[in-house]
Amino acid sequence: LLQKIQKWLVFLDSAGALDSWKPEGPVAFSPAILFRDINRPRVVVCHDMCGGYNCDCDENYPMNCGWDVTDAFVYFSHHRVTIPPPLWIRRSHQHGVPILGTFITEWQEGYRENILVFCKSTEVRRHYARQLAAIAAHHGFDGWLVNIEAHLPPLAEIPQEAIPTDAPSGLTPHAAIVVDFLTTLRNELHARVGPHALVFMYDSITHGGRIQWQNGLTSENMAFFSCTDGFATNYCWDTNQLTLSTALAASTPASSLPDHRPDPPPASAPTDRRYDLLVGIDCFGRNTFYKEGAGCREAVDQILATGTSVFLFAPGWAKENCPKERRENWQLFDREFWDALGLCRVRTHQ
């Protein structure tokens, strides 16, 4: 039992632990899986189940039914730094799917840690980004979902040395700080893991440094979309928000995001960034127009109609909510759930 527990405990719970992290043991290998070249809507699965790092969500839920429609996989928990357990890294790569960990700051403790990570100085902030890239390279996974779900401090409390002097023009100071972190992280991942590495940003913080979920792509968060490989929207969107978000993403050329590969993208690669808009669907249907479980197909239908991509939160819903009389064969209920979503349609989307 102790060995099983130890192999799951690869998370870090504080900025201090991230600051002092050092590699131990051999460096793992991350194969080059080119998510950005997929010229169609994509499906990103966010494995948010039972808090993460336990037998139920790791060993007993291998997601056997979902791999055939998954283009990228995010292992999620509410620890500060969520490093995917080795068995999920193996599963993902065996299916040709890149896998990301999660860096999250949230609640009052997240506010305090935002000051430590983002707002001490530019060099300190970039150090933390380099640490995250080094962790991904060491463990052999492919990037990070970044979720800044706590406010940044007011501008008057941020020292001048924390505001980058080389930020793109037109950004607010708070946006410049976040963009600097995301850009450094992406550059470092490309250098350490490879140019196939990914950074996704979650729809939480705005360019003013405040938490205000937009449920889409707006002028409040466009700066973060512009410097990352994918932007995952909160899942409480409506049809109008989806339409406006799609227009913004479709008007952004794919070439606007730096590509560090030695060779140019293939001619078949996307020309705009519509597929980098990852529209959130919550399988539990919390505060959404669609219902939980199979009812999420209504959201899938709307997303596919716009030609954007799917960010599927918590598909472990099927195992957690399998009717009592069917639990001995919950895998069949899980299969029915995945089939009902109709995500296979992204593979033939025109």
Structural commentary:
The protein is of the alpha/beta class. It has eleven helices and nine strands. It has helices at residues 2-8, 15-20, 86-94, 107-118, 122-139, 173-192, 222-225, 239-250, 297-306, 317-320, 330-341; strands spanning 43-47, 72-75, 81-82, 99-106, 143-149, 198-202, 230-232, 277-282, 309-313. Strands 1-2-4-5-6-7-8-9 form an eight-stranded parallel β-barrel, surrounded by six helices. Strand 8 (277-282), helix 9 and strand 9 (309-313) form a beta-alpha-beta unit.
Number of helices: 11
* Poorly predicted segments: none
Described by the principal axes of the CA atoms, the overall outline is globular
The total count of strands amounts to 9
Q: How far apart, in Å, are the first and last alpha carbons?
A: 49 Å
Strand content: 5-15%
Our Rg estimate from Cα atoms comes to 19 Å
What is the mean pLDDT?
A: 93
Largest sheet: 8 strands, parallel, barrel
Q: In which range does the helix fraction lie? A: 25-40%
From the helix content, strand content and strand pairing, which structural class follows?
alpha/beta
Strand-and-helix sequence, N→C? HHEEEHEHHEHEHEHEHEHH
Strands of the biggest beta sheet: in what spatial order?
Answer: 1-2-4-5-6-7-8-9
